[in-house]
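[09:14] KT: can someone run the structure on this one? pasting the chain below
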Amino acid sequence: MTLELLLKEIGDNYTRENFFRILKYLRSDTLAKAQFKFFEITFSSTATNFRHRHAMGFVPKDILVTNISDQESVIFNYDLFTNQYLDITTSGPCTVRFFAGTYREVL
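[09:31] RB: done, structure tokens below
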């Protein structure tokens, strides 16, 4: 879904400018800007403390899982994350899709 505003139809210059700035802010405030990176990892068997290189240069504090296939369990071992690797344990073979990063308020 995209947000389509009819900015040209707003007669008042200040109102039009405010809507333009709001729209610009909403379009720029993405997960990428908040230092998130998307991953898709396929495990062919149960994994215990699997280290996956993320190369973000900092220790991610947040994981946003979007999908786990085959009804398996996935545990992100946050206490074992480093500035180069994630640590993941799975209950069986699966594919996991997720964003890793650190959420921060953008003012």
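[09:33] KT: thanks! The beta strands are 36-43, 47-53, 62-68, 74-76, 85-90, 94-101.
[09:34] RB: yep, looked fine to me
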